[in-house]
């Protein structure tokens, strides 16, 4: 591999941006392509589908053969709130293959004893998200019930295009939340994408059951993200 391409690919991976190494099997030339970079014609369609599937492989395009080595960021789950739901959610998320981190400025709750083997940021979201920014491969679950902690995180999750944004609370609670988010400048369509009440409607009552419902909804959103992209590709093909 070209050292320049390797350096560029590592930069993209560290920044949690999807990228692929495109190798022309005819002449051996390499090229790093970021998700969303414009690539014309049939090759562009093949690259878009590779990002969609996350699978590397050989493709024949216009009489030439290419190897597409795809690198997608691992899906991440950021939970705002070191609460009982988060305690139940942490081992489930790990089993499902999600990197999970918890942000909560309340140091009495965000302790290693309560959350072993979980990345804890005992900071306000305003500070934590500066060093751990959100992205399109991140799901955000907001569960503190405290607007001073929750609202900023929700605003940033929507702006970052996170594939899932959910917030704990009743419909009445969410209605008040919507008013606050509108005051922060979020439009109606963006706010409508927030899952509230959080989690699939399975009648969950206990913290563990709510955690199951949340993780199920996160997984559903991640898979639906790929489905929506596939449908878009079909329409533009």
From TrEMBL:
Q: Which Pfam families match?
A: XdhC_C (PF13478)
Where do the XdhC Rossmann domain residues begin and end? 77-218
Q: InterPro entries from the entry? A: MoCofactor_Util/Proc, XdhC_Rossmann_dom
Q: Where does the record locate the signal sequence feature?
A: none
| Protein's UniProt name | XdhC/CoxF family protein
Gene source species: Phyllobacterium myrsinacearum
